Amino acid sequence: xxSTLNYLTRHHMAIKLQRLPAVPxxxxxxxxxxxxxxxxxxxxxxxxxxxxxxxxxxxxRSFNNRAGCWHLINEIRNRAEFLPSANWLIAGPGGCCxxxxxxxxxxxxxxxxxxxxxxxxxxxxxxxxxVLQALHSFKQHGLTSAVLEVTAENGPAFALYQSLGFRKMxxxxxxxxxxxxxx
Length: 183
Description:
This protein has 183 residues and is α+β, with helices and mostly antiparallel strands. The chain has one domain (4-178): 3-Layer(aba) Sandwich (Aminopeptidase), CATH 3.40.630. 29% of the residues lie in helices and 33% in strands. It is built from five helices and seven strands; from the N terminus they run ββαααβββαβαβ. Strands 2-3-4-5-6-1-7 form a seven-stranded mixed sheet. A hairpin with a 2-residue loop joins strand 3 and strand 4. Helix 1 (40-51) packs across helix 3. The longest helix is centred in the last third of the chain and has 15 residues, at 126-140.
């Protein structure tokens, strides 16, 4: 079986942090879990389970296995720009189900690295809550803007970021070999 060469669209998006909506209340039974180095295995597992069958896993091969996800989260937490207060897990009745990883990209700009929500927990507002929690953390640290990248073919994520006020700044096209590139 041969793979097909495809192109995915990646949007670089930015937002100013002056006027942010409040962080929404989590659904009943869900709680915020702040960053703790001892929870790296949970972050990696949520990341893996969220991305393993996604279009982004064709772009980022580390998303396809637990070890790759663990190494990614570990690399993020070991960077000098790591901002623990902007990194969160959400736990629900079934355990941890969503997470976000962030860096202070510069003295004025936060950088959202990954937003992960397990497929069965999507459409509950957890992604929106995670992003807003991170943006408020950035603002509390004196940052004035935030950036992220999103695969445009991931319509729900792109729409979420637009609805929060992120604006497309740049577009890139990435080659992928894949037989299945549908979200």
